[in-house]
Amino acid sequence: MTKNIYIIRHCKAEGQAPDAPLTEEGFIQAKELAEFLSDLKVDRVISSHFLRAIQTIKPFAENKDIDIEVDSRLAERVLSSTFLTDWMEKLEATFNDTDLKFEGGESSNEAAKRIVEVIDEIVVSGTEDTVIVSHGGIISLLLNYYDKSFGFEQWMSIRNPDVYHLRVTETGANFNRLLKD
User: Fold this and answer.
1) Can you give the pLDDT at residue 181?
2) I need a surface site. Which of 33, 52, 73, 91 has the fewest CB within 10 A?
3) What value, to the nearest 5°, has the Cα angle with vertex 131 and ends 135 and 73?
4) Are 105 and 138 in contact (CB under 8 A)?
């Protein structure tokens, strides 16, 4: 059993709200991303319900004639429901204390659990090659699940868009970044 899961961070967007669309540049990136991914064999596409994630993968899905499945577990991690002026320091703290939680937010462990559930379901499904589209914060927690050295500094290096290939076999899992600088 080998499962190939392509983890995509959405293209550049106009904001952080769930209904924030891609920017003009983001739509161009989405077309370029579809071209970059065009040679991949893909059985399924699963996206966060955020508009920017769906718009990111739409050109690829249309080219491959694959329906986009929407899964709210791929939504971005909520750090807090209140405005935090020092949000960057607080976010970094959640990488060091994965149970740390701020008002109205999720701990790193809680958020990671959501996206890991999606991956676990993909692994036991009948499909071999799946694309998921999500957000930088939750993707970093997923990658940290498979490699504990992937932390705050690595989160800061995830781009819009970005693509990682997660390969899962009977003996384990590993990932690598596909988009190069």
Assistant:
1) 62
2) 73
3) 45
4) no
Q: Which residues pair with 7 in a beta bridge?
A: 132, 164
Q: How confident is the model at residue 1 (pLDDT cuts 50, 70, 90)?
A: confident
Q: Measured between alpha carbons, how far is 126 from 116 in angstroms, rounded to an integer?
A: 18
**pLDDT exceeds 90 at position 180:** no
Assess contact for 47 and 69: CB atoms under 8 A: yes
With beta carbons less than 8 A apart as the criterion, state whether 4 and 176 touch.
no
Tell me how long the chain is: 181
Q: Report residue 175 as tokens.
A: 């990932």
Q: What is the DSSP letter of 74?
A: G
Beta strands in the chain (DSSP E): 2-9, 44-47, 68-70, 129-134, 162-169, 172-177
- Choose among 71, 11, 67: nearest CA to 47: 71
Interval 3-11 mean pLDDT: 98
